[in-house]
Amino acid sequence: MTKPVAKPSGRLRFFRRQFHEYRLTDRVALSQMPLFVTTVLTAILVAAFFPVSMGHPLFIAFLVSQLSIMVLCYAVPWERLPYTSFLVLPLLDFISIALGREGGQDGLTGISLLAVFPVIWLCASGFYPRAALCLSFLGPLAIIWVPLFIRGDISGPSLARSLLLPVMMLGIGVSVTVLTMSMARQQQVLEEKDQQLLDSLRRSKRHESLLNTILDTVHLGVLAVDADGHDVLMNRKQRANHELARPKDIEDPNESQLLVFAADRTTPVPVEERPVRRAVLGETFTDYLVWLGSGSEQRAITTTARAMKEPDGGFAGSVVVFSDVTDLVNALEAKDDFVSNVSHEFRTPLTSILGYVEILMDDDLAEHQRHSLEIVRRNSERLLTLVSDLLASRNGQLIVTPEAVDVAELVRASVSAAMPKAAASHVALEAATPERLDAHVDGARISQVLDNLVSNAIKYSPEGGNVLVSLEAQEGRLTCQVRDTGMGMSADDQAEVFTKFFRTSNVRRTNIPGVGLGLPISKAIVEAHGGTIEVDSALGQGTTFTFRVPV
After folding, report:
1. Where are the alpha helices (DSSP H) in 152-274?
2. What is the DSSP letter of 20?
């Protein structure tokens, strides 16, 4: 058991304070105290070994004057007088010491050395340094010379013999003055640094208060963790998120006990895949979706993490932002349900239209009638395919029927079909393909992807430009690129380009038609083939879509 630390008494606390922390009266008394104590000890020695001197009037005057000066230290209201008024006391000490020297010279001849105390007081005060140095020489000199002049002993040798003490006192005064000035400069520097630290502390507290106010105002949960995973900062919203994820029967759960679920709302997210754990490991991620809590209180949260770095580049921790997107997720699900229901409703009448068109085309018709019915059938089939794709996309899958296909011919056919549109838009369209490139893919679906990418490349090059469709085989995979020099996309738009119904900010400000379904469907087709599709773009510099599927 640790012993309690005893608090210092009031008397000890008095002596532990810095000298400048005392009130002026106490500082004056402490400056006089060394000479007064030395005088008392001198009186004891004289009484013990030189009792005759105790009866000398001048020695008695010395003792009385020292006692009187000590009383003056406390009796005079120094705070009410001009600040340097207390310097009169060391001048009185010189006179008092002169009385003691004359009264006790038959006993203690070294009483004149007591002049060192008023010399130190004057020089250590820091006021009037030049005058203090002069007095440190003239005061001790007067203590010795004045009695000589009074007695008439003013011979050269007698005056010369007494110069050692004033010179020694002057040396002490110079040393004390230099030391005091140095300490004063150091004190000034320390006070300036202390003021700078106080200013920095006030600014830091003001910034901390501002930061906490801002963080508690925003509707985002913000969590900062250090490199060891300890919480450094957590705002009000994030405390609410943490409380939501806390099991009701556990007061202080660890990370593995928190209610964090995957997108299906029921599967617990493994500890190593949870946002905070990933952030502690130094990962950087954006819009990672998890569900917190359980039952009707469960909320969808997207998380974003960014690492903090030390000046030397080392990992210092991470900041994780939690955003409640429950309403958005529910709205997207409602939208998907709506699209699915509407697509189902479209399918029946379209099937009926196609059936009756087929019946009509079996009759003997004029050429212009058959041509019109062909247009109706082609567009109805296209609309039915779009409805089917919407349904398949809603269900997360598309059915593909792979077969041996010359993909190079598909690319050339897609480019050839788009030539009129490219010419109308003043776009130079060309294909770079091998003579033949066979692959086991669904030809109709791959053509759908190619038509969509080429159509987009022309559509989003409103000022004209170049579109190049290239095809090659790389390490057992078919790689196709559609590169344009059109308006391009920002990084944020590229992250959302394969989202259903998404259209870039640039396109939304124009009259370019579209509903934002072509790219999501193309992505679904490519992934149904076991492939990948990606985009690389820059605003004003064009866009390149690349898809790869196994050969």
Report:
1. 156-161, 164-217, 236-245
2. G
Angle made by CA atoms 125, 127, 131, in degrees to the nearest 5: 110
Phi, psi of 337 (to 5 degrees): -65, -40
Measure Cα distances from 180 to 83, 245, 348 in Å. 18, 65, 103
CA atoms within 13 A on the CB side of 36: 19
Bridge partner residues of 483 (DSSP) = 468, 544
- Which bin fits 426, alpha (ψ -120 to 50), beta or left (φ > 0)? left
Read off the amino acid at residue 378. R
d(CA 104, CA 538) in angstroms, rounded, equals: 102
| Residue 223 · residue 276 · CB < 8 Å | yes
Name the residue with tokens 């579109």: 467
313-326 residue pLDDT tens: 888 899 999 999 88
Task: In whole angstroms, give the CA distance from residue 422 to residue 454.
Answer: 9
Nearest-10 crossing angle of helices 116-124, 129-151: 160
Element at 292 (helix H, strand E): strand 285-292
How many other C-beta atoms can be found within 10 angstroms of the C-beta atom of residue 44?
A: 10
**Tell me, what DSSP letter sits at residue 8?**
P
The burial class, CB within 10 Å (0-12 / 13-18 / 19+), for 163 is: middle
What's the rounded Cα separation, in Å, for the pair 409 and 434? Answer: 9
What Rg do the C-alpha atoms of the chain give, in angstroms? 49
Cα–Cα distance for residue pair 515/495, rounded to 1 Å: 18
Tokens of 160: 């010369």
> Residues near 295 by Cβ (< 8 Å), separated by ≥ 6?
none
- Give Dmax over CA atoms of the chain in angstroms: 161
State the CB neighbour count (10 A cutoff) for residue 286. 11
* 369-400 per-position pLDDT tens digit: 878 888 787 777 767 777 766 666 555 556 78
The β-bridge relationship of strands 427-432 and 465-474 is: parallel
Confidence of residue 253 (pLDDT cuts 50, 70, 90): confident
Tokens at 16, concatenated: 């532990």
d(CA 465, CA 468): 10
CA distance readout (Å), 259 to 167, 241, 243, 293, 302: 86, 11, 10, 5, 15
Convert 488-520 to b/e letters by CB count within 10 Å (16 or more is b): bbeeebbeebbebebbbebbeeeeeeeebbbbb
Task: Report the amino acid identity of residue 531.
Answer: G
Task: Provide the H-helix boundaries in 281-366.
Answer: 326-361
More confident residue, 377 or 269: 269
Structural contact between residues 250 and 257, judged by C-beta atoms closer than 8 angstroms? yes
